[in-house]
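re: that complex we talked abt at group meeting.

here r the seqs, copy pasted straight from the sheet so there may be weird spacing, ignore it
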Amino acid sequence: MIEVAVGTTILEAARLAGVNLAAPCGGTGRCGKCLVKIVSQQGEGWLLACKTVVTDDLSVELATQPPVILEAAETTAIPLDPAVQRDDQGELYHQQGFPLLPSANQREEVLGLAVDVGTTTLVAYLYNLLDGSLLAVNSVVNGQRIFGADVISRLGYALQGQENYQKLRQRLLDSLNDLIERCCQSVGTTTDLVRELVVVGNTPIMHFFLNLPIQGLAVAPFKPYQKGPFYRKAAELEVTTVPQAICYVPPFIGGFVGSDALAAAVVQNFGSAGTEKMLVDIGTNGEILLQVGEQLLAASVPAGPALEGAGIECGMVASAGAISRVTLDYDVRLEVIGGGRATGICGSGLVDALAEMLRLGLIDSSGKLLPASQVPPIVSFKIKQRLKQVGENLRFVLAEQVYLSQKDIRAVQLAKAAVAGGIQLVTTEAQVSHKPLLVLLAGGFGSYLNPSNALRIGLLGEQRNMNPQQVGNAAGAGAVLLLLSYQSRQRAEQLSQRFIHRELAAEANFQAVFLEQMAFPTREW
Amino acid sequence: MSFRNRVEKEILVIDGAMGTLLQQRGLPSGWCPDEWNVSHPEVIQEVHRLYLEAGADIITTNTFGAIRSKLADYGLEDRVKELNQAAVTLAKEVAKPYGALVAGSIGPLGKFLQPLGEISFDEAYQQFFEQCQAMVEAGVDLILFETFGDIGEMRVALIAAADAGDVPVVASFTFDESGRTFTGTDPETAAVVVERLGVSAIGVNCSVGPRQLADVVQRLTQSTNLPILVSPNAGMPEMVEGQTVFRETPEMMADYAVRFVEYGASILGGCCGTTPLHIKAIRQSVKELTLKPRHRLFGLRLASRVKTATIDPKGMPVAIGERLNPTGKKALQAEIREGKTEITRRDALAQVAAGSAILDVNVGVGGVDQVAAMERAVNAVQVLVDAPLCIDSTDPQVIEQALKNYHGKALINSVNGEEQSLDTILPLAKRYGAALIGLTLDDQGIPATAKERLAVARKLMQRVEELGIPKQDLMIDTLVLTVSAQPEGVPETLNAIRYIKRDLGLTTSLGVSNVSFGLPNRGLINTAFFAMALAAGLDAAILNPQDQRMMETLRAAAVLTGRDVRAEQYIAREQTAQGGNQPPKVSEPVASTPLEVLYQAVLSGDKDNVVDHINKAIDSGLSPMELLDKALIPGIEEVGRRYGAGIYFLPQLMMAGETMTKSFERLKPELAKGPSRKLGTVILATVKGDIHDIGKNILSVMLANHGFEVIDLGKNVDNQEILQAAIAHQADIIALSALMTTTMVHMPDCIAKVKEAGLSCKVMVGGAAVTDQYAQEIGADGYAFDAVEAVDLAKKLVS
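got the structure back, here u go
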């Protein structure tokens, strides 16, 4: 319950009330995804929260369901060597030399948290630092979402003044503190036992966390205020649940490619000589890390939120009701998150649908959706019947309320051209050989994606010899590594120096490559 | 005389529609027409008599819907035998004095076969069998399956009819205006499938009028030597005052009937909307014409639901894709065990894309229900690719399940000379209308010499023909032995191919890769052996089409053995390969005049050749102005329209734009002489701090194409610089682009500066971050969503 002045929009009211209402386009009225149900004396209805002003008492129902969050991370055995340890006298000390509050007694637990702060969600792994055992994994939605789905929108909001900056920062801290409490509660322990936090995230989000100025990041050439690494007292950073803890944020690689990408690189053994490999984390702000011989390249690709459902007519985040898998045989076969009725389609479902439509010849390689009369004869009539002309627009109907339009296909082409173009540019620069390239798909979207469908739509570029492997939340696994192995921090810091960061939009031939990558591959390989 | 005799010698006339005539005689709407055979037999006989008087040689019984599942709609499902036999009996009674034949009419079930629909092969079989048996018992002269729209259903029906008795069968399909059946079968494919299922004639009836059938009938006559039945509707149905009307007159139908006979059809009649008058006219025009029997030779033909593949002893050799085989493939084995089909589908597509005309399907994994696995594999592949399938198994149960589910004519891999194999596999090929690969080994083992293998092949051929399977549906595999173990095996295999082709006239195939087993660099041995086998006359090989060397060898050998006539396919392929990776061109009508050619060049973004086209056009006497106004500008405007409609996307827009740019460069000297056509000057920039410029670059080209002078300041441009440029060039418009919400804040500042400086220049804005609302808020003169809208906006702002 909250009181607001007449003329306040519902979205503004939600922000004031601290309610988690997602506004992917930042409240500019472009995405249509902030629908809420308004119940007032004049009646009820679904309206856009960013456009609807409050004129009278009313109640608001949110439609959002919690998105599916990736928590699983592949970890390999690590020699236990945390920064916080007990010495021979049983006294607590930090390897970097920071003074720690003494523990109550020698048997007191010593806990640490590895936190992956994503643009959309935060995931935390709670560890017993003395024996290296995992105690809990929890996740929360990043409360900053209410100010925009992507970091540029949030930076835009924050640039308008210190007050806005702090609002954004506070939202992040609230989410983080909430997450820390949940972790501890879930195993019946107390937050005062947490001695260290390793926090990773992309560069802009980490700037908010560390309370650093963001002006440089908001415009070309997107320079971080400082590169890191950062050690801070949790109290200084207002992580109020664990004021006694030390916070470690690994360095940024460059531009928007932040500590999360570095953590992923460390845990996936980038920097050690050997296989050519590439790590790709596809999201609204995606990252590409490539190792070829001694060369280490990093690039961020602004894929945009299409692969997370925004800008797609029936698109939605990966939560209950979202079509997450699609196969086309005699008819459409769908998998819906939560098993119920389909109300929209999420990124993985989108990639599946397009791959299948390409296979059947419903879309040509330029991306044009074909009417039923032009589709190959092999296609069953049940599929053909799903190609419906609605006024001027052609749609492919997947479920009663869910369809794909020509515009949706174009939106995906733009997103995939960015990712594929980025991959094409870095692999060309690094002169990747013709041997099969190991491609590590990291992050939430990468983990739910069907790799062979991603290849079919050319999401990973034209390279025919790709060997895609899904590695889960590599950034989270990397944060865990850095928590449990102090030595690995040196490795990380050295690695961050070795990576060459490329700002792709600034590359001379980005435009040509981008336009080239817009088409879909003509065939299966 | 029997139908079989008569159809060989005469042109026959078959009757017209029954339904309308019954309605005219009081059949209530919603009443089961087939029921009238029992309740109003005299009415039915009257209608028959009218057609017999009109001259029909064949009358069709009133039993189109008298099959169990359709009768069930009226609650009459237990009267199948009664209704059908009544219909046949009354028809025979009336036909006898005229010496006419009675055809038992059987229509489709009205349901789709699994997995598309609910009904299984066996259930469908039961229903067709029931109806056929009733008719055969009542002494029908032939069975006519008519108005079938699905080849899978026709297969079941024909198999059931064959089991019901020794009665001639005619298989008639209905084709729509695209020339395919409802489930996509073309006339040639329909013919290929039914030829092997014991039909005496093939036909086309209903759905369309004679006008629309010309092409279908021609294709049928070119695809088979079987007699052909043609019963069109009396035109396409039209609604006139709430009634359905068919417009073709008896004279028109008769004219078309003559044309059909010229193509080669020999059984002529009519379907919906036809009357005894139509039949009389048809009879008068065709009865005295001469039958045109056809004796074409066809090679081994296989078919999927929608496509025919031919293995012709004189035509291109054929690649049979081998990859759908779990031997040595862990991932595929796992998938088969788990009941999934993802890899199967991908590999099927990849093999067809790589040039396989036929796909071999093998599900041999231990401990797995292979019958179910084969059904899954066949169903997964046959709805995805149009290549016919080769069923790779020696287990009769697995083969039978595949053939039941496969809606086409398959190749069985394989049968051999062992008695057990001949006894179990040949009957399946016969029953389900499949072709065979025959291995030249028998109960004595693998013969050592080519002559002995020829003998086994001969025996296979005899046994196949004994069962009534035509010999061209037997392809011989002369067996490939491992050269490292048996070096003398190679010449014997190759000689066997030569002898079999020469003495028996059969096609040959091999599983090539066995030759190199145990040797290093197997690909090299396989390729050379393949070339040798092709020289010996090999017609098909089971290989991996993604093996480039093998496919190249196939294509080259086809030229060298004269099978790729005049090297046409080879040359065409090599030319496209050089063309490289081009975006697909939208298919356009053929351009002939220089203006049309130029227009098409813009549409297809042909920037490499456009200057050439311009030069030719100018040589032919056209002025640069004409080129601009009649070809180039309309071209770029059409591109814009297509882009707006979603038919074209950014790459096409850009290529067309670059084509225009090249055109302008070429025409600059001529245009400079004439009056200025400049619409205005535009200063274009991406704002400070923003480095995204692709959209802006496209706009830059588009504005220039449409006649603006464009000063493109690039990206990350200071407002001061923009202002100075606007003043220096006396710009009409400043166009600003911003892709980030953090940088679009420079736009209001620019607008303010323009006002301060007192310029009359208009400011328009765009870019992914910008919205119409924002543009209004900051006082911009206009907002455009994309390059095409921006050009229109710019034109408005200067007008």
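couple things i noticed - The radius of gyration of chain B is 35 Å. Chain B touches chain A through 53 residues (CB under 8 Å).
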